[in-house]
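Handout, page 2. Input:
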Amino acid sequence: MTMYEKLRPWTEIESCRCKTVTGLVLIDLLTDNPIHCASCRGEIDPERLQLTENEVESIVRWHSVASALYRLWLDSGEYEHYAKEKLLDPRGQINQQAQELAIAMSLRLPTRFWYFHDTEDGDPIRCPVCGNQLDAAVEWGVGICRPCHVQM
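Output:
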């Protein structure tokens, strides 16, 4: 297995077909690859970005925990509240790691991370990290905070 296969999309159906990738969003959409195009939302093969082994491993580690928490929340069982609390905590490990990854990946391409929100709680209008109003001019989602590398 190559390092890229750890994040490679299983099928071409969900892959980004944009000629040029202008931005990235790190998001768990219940697949093995959390690297998505900021424009079309399609998965981006890490080899296309020529990620280093360290970048791949960092993304895999973050995604492993983020995905586990997201799935616990989706299960709506006894861990739902715990998972939601961790997914919403701007100072929590999962969001801190995601923000660090987004900042590091932005050296290649502008990168944001998808900050969890429960749609039952309504659409957020403020960044959960800094409290500033979200910029609603986005291709998908409800808004972004560029300084914090957050997309919701």
